[in-house]
Amino acid sequence: MTELAEDTGIVLRVDAKICHVGIGDEEIQVPLAGKLFENRGREKRPVAVGDRVRLSRSGDGDYGAIDEVLPRTSKLARRGAGEDAREQVIAANVSLVLVVAAVREPEFQPSLVDGVLAAAERQELPAAIALTKVDRDRKGIAQRWTDLYRRLGYEVFPTSVTPGHETTESLAALERTIHANVTVLTGLSGVGKSSLLNTIIPGLDLRVGSLGRVRQGKHTTTHTRLIPLPGGGHVLDTPGIRTFTLFATDPTELTFYFRELKELRDRCAFRNCTHLDEPDCGVVAAVEAGEVAPSRWASYRQLYLGLAKSGD
Ligand SMILES: Nc1nc2c(ncn2[C@@H]2O[C@H](COP(=O)(O)OP(=O)(O)OP(=O)(O)O)[C@@H](O)[C@H]2O)c(=O)[nH]1
Ligand SMILES: [Mg+2]
Ligand SMILES: [Zn+2]
């Protein structure tokens, strides 16, 4: 992140009424100026973790409130959960989205991975995948998912952090990547996001959930937090997500956010083909020919239908 002026800080955490802001080496807690809520547009909250903000000063020189959110270089966003269709910005000003997914417990969920990858693609944000708990893999699942996403051009880090079974090389590679970026980790609860960070960054000591919690689907990390790293870079540890819906995209745009489908568009008989059930669809043909993974097409359909439903 760039040098900040004296009264400019970075949002480290957002609570209901207060934000934690890093300013120099200090962490302060300040409210948001009321005017920010008036100008927030379609966003659920006017400020997100990673935002650069300008702070006002009270008469005696103490910091008062967040007065202004500076323009963002990037954001990872999704549609609010349930009935709430507003934009929820998960992280601002990041340079890398690291999708974290386990081979088991919780089971690998392609639609979630593909949803986050599509959101990153939409924002032209680089994305990579950490495939965790490979020490628990019994059926070669890790290799299959690794091959699929590498073929699509995504960097994949297959990892295990279990003592005695650490994947030393991929952890070292991930460490280098993390020190060179502002990385947001996102994925289901219990996949091992916090565990991964604890292993890569000595002394971090984030709370990690028990397997019992994972089985009950309980969150361990409850707030997104931006952590500046001693060796350079920043990471954002986030609470697990259950579903991921793209924000307010016209569903027909979706083809552009699936790298391999984008290439196939001119093979469809209809220019505005949705690749759901039209005749002479190049995508369907490519799935049948084994050129496109069935899981990716299933994710595409699921995301498409979710967007078509919410696009009102
Ligand atoms: N076998 C195995 N278990 C792991 C590995 N990484 C994490 N775990 C276990 O997975 C469980 C959940 O880990 P967390 O790091 O809390 O997961 P999280 O993704 O941060 O979860 P939330 O904070 O709820 O989103 C813990 O019991 C970890 O010990 C791994 O590489 N192998
Ligand atoms: Mg966690
Ligand atoms: Zn088509």
Task: Walk me through what this model shows.
The strands form three sheets. Strands 10-9-8-11-13-12 form a six-stranded mixed β-sheet, sandwiched between helices. It has a five-stranded antiparallel β-sheet with strand order 3-2-1-4-5, with no helix packed on it. Strands 6-7 form a two-stranded antiparallel sheet. The mean pLDDT is 91. It is α/β, with parallel strands linked by helices and 312 residues long. The two termini are 37 Å apart. Helix 2 (110-122) crosses helix 9. The relative contact order is 0.13. It is globular, with a radius of gyration of 20 Å. The chain is built from nine helices and 13 strands. Helix content is 27%, strand content 23%. Strand 12 (225-228) and strand 13 form a beta hairpin. It has three domains: 8-69, Nucleic acid-binding proteins (OB fold (Dihydrolipoamide Acetyltransferase, E2P)), CATH 2.40.50; 75-237, P-loop containing nucleotide triphosphate hydrolases (Rossmann fold, 3-Layer(aba) Sandwich); 251-310, Ribonucleotide Reductase Protein R1, domain 1 (Orthogonal Bundle), CATH 1.10.40. The longest helix has 17 residues, at 294-310. The site of magnesium ion has 5 residues, from helix 5.
